[in-house]
Specification:
Layout lengths: L11 E6 L11 E7 L2 H7 L4 E4 L5 E3 L7 E5 L19 E7 L4 H11 L1 E2 L11 H6 L3 E2 L2 E2 L4 E8 L2 E5 L18 E11 L2 H14 L21 H7 L6 E2 L2 E3 L7 E3 L5 H15 L8 E3 L1
Parallel strand pairs: 2-5, 3-5, 4-16
Antiparallel strand pairs: 1-2, 6-12, 7-12, 8-9, 10-11, 10-12, 13-14, 14-15
Helix pairs in contact: 2-4
The protein binds flavin-adenine dinucleotide.
Main location: cytoplasm
Catalytic activity: UDP-N-acetyl-alpha-D-muramate + NADP(+) = UDP-N-acetyl-3-O-(1-carboxyvinyl)-alpha-D-glucosamine + NADPH + H(+)
EC number: 1.3.1.98
Amino acid sequence: MTALSTEVPALKVERLRLARFTTLGVGGTSEVWTVHNHAQLAEAMRAPYRVLGGGSNLVVADEGVPERVIRLSGEFAQTDLTRDHALSGEEYVTGWVGGGVPLPGLLRKLQKLGLSNLEGTVGIPAQVGGAVWMNAGTRFGEMFDGLHTLEIVTPQGVRVVSPAELQWGYRQSGIPRGHIVTRVRLKLAPSTPQAVQDVMDQADMARKGQPKMRTPGCAFKNPGGIGAGKLIDDAGLKGYRVGNAMISHEHANFIVNLGGARAEDVQAILDHVRRTLNTPLELEYELWP
Ligand SMILES: Cc1cc2nc3c(=O)[nH]c(=O)nc-3n(C[C@H](O)[C@H](O)[C@H](O)COP(=O)(O)OP(=O)(O)OC[C@H]3O[C@@H](n4cnc5c(N)ncnc54)[C@H](O)[C@@H]3O)c2cc1C
């Protein structure tokens, strides 16, 4: 009988274009540190770093970033959904789910198991850690609806906290930037696959009208309750194009990559929108660096 290998893959340090890791498909070459366990993560955090999740909320500069870019893999990309009987009461508390696990695949598994609380986040193309870090969500639910415990790694060490210990709220977790969500335990409500699917269908319906092209999601926050998309649309900016980046015809608050767009094209569009509307609109996504 062959023994199962428990060997941890080596720490990988490579110079890679970040475009391949972002939903917009933009971003220059940077030093990417792919870490598989806590020892490798601690090593990666010994110099200035950024942590990359699903890259679904980022516009990364064409020159890349000067810091190390940490990607969670190995034990941080594993999913243990078995019920932890010691922690579970009426609610179903899982084993550890890695911060590097893609959220869409996790939600598919939870739906099949008929486990509820996170289905409202369907359609968000994040990793678990990134989605937790900003408490991503929709009007059907958000990440903190389904969290029991979080493991957070900082340059000072590892902390295990409950949501009650964090100042979380609308689209924020209260976790400082640079503190890395490495794993979480989920707190789920036993339901049925059909009931979970029904909420997912409603959340999917609400997304109709969003472009299917490469994009980092909504560009601007809604100023004072008015839809940023409506303001941009009313200003006649749908279809406004710089290089290969364009304001989507389907939804004016989305900038899409028509193929080969550059970060500077996206930046030029953002500047043009602000100038045209004469409003200091706040960005939804992050610009790196
Ligand atoms: C088509 C589309 C639809 C979207 N719809 C929604 C929506 O409905 N609701 C919503 O809230 N958002 C939405 N977004 C935005 C985006 O998906 C969320 O902001 C998501 O939380 C980003 O997670 P990520 O893993 O991709 O993080 P990234 O984009 O990789 O990073 C974003 C920030 O999170 C930090 N981060 C990433 N991983 C970790 C980690 N493990 N620990 C600590 N910090 C980390 C990064 O350093 C960075 O500061 C959408 C985006 C797209 C492209």
